[in-house]
Amino acid sequence: MKVTEVPAIAGAFLFEPTPFTDERGLFCRTFDADVVRSVGIDPDAFVQDSLSRSVRGVVRGMHLRSGEGEAKLVRCSYGRIFDVVVDLRPGSPTYLGRATVELSGDTQATLYVPAGCAHGFQALTETADTSYRIDREHDPSEDVTIAFDDPELAVPWPLPVTLTSERDRKAPGLAEVLRTLEVKAP
């Protein structure tokens, strides 16, 4: 498994497995505790796995958690997604940096999103399943959403946005969120 640092976001990593394919299909290891540990991430910290299924053009995000934040491993297990991470940790050397990466079921690459970073994605295929491995139990009182179309974020969504949740449509812009957000520095 190859590990690459994501330069625009301090502490973010891309884990790229080596899929084995033959006439039966594909097999690969999508999580390896030793590899995760080798870059300073505690593999035992993850407490919850979740899955979302989206249709082409759907945007989910930009989401994060206040307080201690929430680190996550994100993988597109089926289809393709355009994934976005924005660093909102005031003490980070990449504060307000933005990284985009395409994740797909063909590669099974996993993106590590550090706590304190906003995350969102757009489904690029008719169906896209996105898996999350999260290091904290969900607490709705800590949910923070930033407008996915905020000009200050300037996310270059590759497709017209076909659908979002009501929460995402009504989200405030980045400037408003930053005025009230409490995220602990790394």
TrEMBL record:
Pfam families: dTDP_sugar_isom
Descriptive protein name: dTDP-4-dehydrorhamnose 3,5-epimerase
Pathway listed: Carbohydrate biosynthesis; dTDP-L-rhamnose biosynthesis
The keyword Ubl conjugation is assigned to this record: no
Subunit structure: Homodimer.
Record keywords: Isomerase
InterPro entries with a match to the protein in the record: RmlC-like (IPR000888), RmlC-like_jellyroll (IPR014710), RmlC_Cupin_sf (IPR011051)
Organism this protein belongs to: Streptomyces cellulosae
Enzyme Commission (EC) number: 5.1.3.13
One of the record's GO molecular function terms: dTDP-4-dehydrorhamnose 3,5-epimerase activity
Homology family: Belongs to the dTDP-4-dehydrorhamnose 3,5-epimerase family.
Enzyme class: isomerase
Reactions that this protein is recorded to catalyse: dTDP-4-dehydro-6-deoxy-alpha-D-glucose = dTDP-4-dehydro-beta-L-rhamnose
Physiological role: Catalyzes the epimerization of the C3' and C5'positions of dTDP-6-deoxy-D-xylo-4-hexulose, forming dTDP-6-deoxy-L-lyxo-4-hexulose.
